[in-house]
Amino acid sequence: MVRGNIELATTEAIQGWIFTEDGKVRNRTVLAFKGDLCVGAGKVDSFRPDLADAGMGDGYLGFSFPISVAPGEAGAVVVKLEGSDAILLQHGAFVTTGATPVEGLDRATVRRRLAELKWALKHGRIAQADFDYLRILWSLGVYERGLVRRNAGEEAIVTDKPAAAAAALLESYVEMDTEIEAIRVESAEAFSAELAELAVGEVPVAAVHAGHRAVLRVLEGSHVADASGRGAPFVDYPLSAANLVMLDARATVELVLPEGGAVDIFVARPAQS
After folding, report:
1. Taking Cα atoms as reference points, which of 131, 142, 117 lies closest to residue 253?
2. Please, which domain of life does this record's source organism belong to (predicted)?
3. What is d(CA 8, CA 93) in angstroms, rounded to the nearest whole number?
4. What is the CATH classification number for the domain harbouring 83?
5. Which domain holds residue 22?
6. Which of 64, 95, 126 represents a domain boundary (last residue)?
């Protein structure tokens, strides 16, 4: 049995991990295919401490090697272990069109930010609700916000407008007034392209909303560069008219969008004075 994951694919490189029950994959060759065409090959020779800690062989399960595909085709690339019929699909892979993988946050930055939030809460500089939201977003790279609520002492149900809720959450993150831009995408490929651009921008966080059903599959904590949860399962965050999901664009994420569907990505642009 072969297990593994393609964690990132670009037009010029692919990386991930692979494991077999006999544990004998170190230095074996893996091949990348687009359809029937081999677009690259490399060795399984990278040490993965997270997988070693999980008891998966000697931990030398990672691969990273050059490939060559046209823009827009990286999402269709699969990986095969030479001499095996098993195929690794891009389930949850973060697909971009650049050659350089997006760098995640270093863990020290996350710890410092969490300590700052605790101090701000202790001294009344931040509301409990904002603290809870920011703590989860900085820790996991994702946060779900419901749009349907009932005001205290009232029976009527209130549904917040997605753009207004997104603006409040984004301004809480950047700690300044912002202008909000809504970007509508109608495919998983377009969604990944927008996130790739956002991840290297000034504000690498967005709010995602769908008028109809869709799903974000997120590898929680993967926005941190040295995250140890790469072998963990993806977590499904349903999207609907009744909620939005705050997402760190540096996280590994996949959009599952039904045919004819669309999602809106709300991004922050610093307000012009």
Report:
1. 142
2. Bacteria
3. 5
4. 2.60.40
5. 2-95
6. 95
